[in-house]
Design brief:
There is one protein chain. By secondary structure, the chain is α/β, with parallel strands linked by helices. The chain contains eleven helices and twelve strands. Helix 1 links the parallel strand 1 and strand 2. Helix 5 packs across helix 6 and helix 5 packs across helix 10. The radius of gyration is 18 Å and the shape is globular. It binds NADPH dihydro-nicotinamide-adenine-dinucleotide phosphate. NADPH dihydro-nicotinamide-adenine-dinucleotide phosphate binds next to helix 5, helix 6, helix 8 and helix 10.
Length: 266
Amino acid sequence: MPDRYAVIGHPIAHSKSPRIHALFAAQTGQDMRYEALLAPLDGFVATVHEFIAAGGRGANVTVPFKEEAFRLATRLSERARAAGAVNTLTFAGTEILGDNTDGAGLVRDLKRNLGVGIAGKRVLLLGAGGAARGVVMPLLAEQPGQLVIANRTVGKALALASTFPTCTGCGLDELDSRVFDLVINATSAGLTGGVPPRLTFTFAPDAFVYDMVYGRETDFLRQALAAGAVVADGLGMLVEQAAEAFLVWRGVLPETAPVLTELRAA
Ligand code: NDP
């Protein structure tokens, strides 16, 4: 029997994770199966326990269960604790180990795939939800010149920034006249079709703009392109965070470039 893994979310049918992990498994010769599990909105914990009882070895967790997964874990990695959210569970006997690979995925996509350095840069992170929380510590580890967290609900930006001594938090409407080299959109505005954050700040001449949403050109990226910035969507982060989860489970870091190429072609 191959080892079983899954991604658990609601909704889940759109997930690219089963395809990504199937490609990683084929590439590295790992005997494993990876499926998508739809958990009822009030049934995440039951779904995890059923999967463990059926022989599951680990699971990725996606919207809207990352905070529930954080509470469910019996042990947490440092990066999961800093994020307050878990996207990777490993089942080991009676223990449920919680990790968060989103930040590692973003940093690797920026640095390795896109050639964007973070050290010394003026970085703006838009959003203060689960995805934003997951990337703050890994971004700070790259020693940006500054990291500003801006969110529609100001209190959430202030709360998140206050947990990291070198960050500042503010509202989306408090960015006028500030200049940034790297802007990362971690809001779900582009996904929900809601009103995107208005670009009220100034881009440095060679600014880079990253939207974590993938598979579509969001209004946010369109605004950034029109302002002369170089842009990227979040598909590379998706593949890189999956590779990091694969490393956690199987002890092997797969090659991401061919997988990213195949997903882009599809
Ligand atoms: P959450 O629901 O936890 O947070 C949503 C965030 O978006 C909040 O900060 C919210 O602000 C903000 N927001 C929502 N709508 C608007 C709007 N119309 N205008 C301004 N701000 C808005 O979601 P996540 O943090 O988990 O995910 C955020 C995005 O990142 C999603 O699109 C998700 O698909 C993507 N993502 C991509 C990954 C990848 O690998 N590429 C990995 C993880 C996430 P407020 O607090 O005011 O409500």
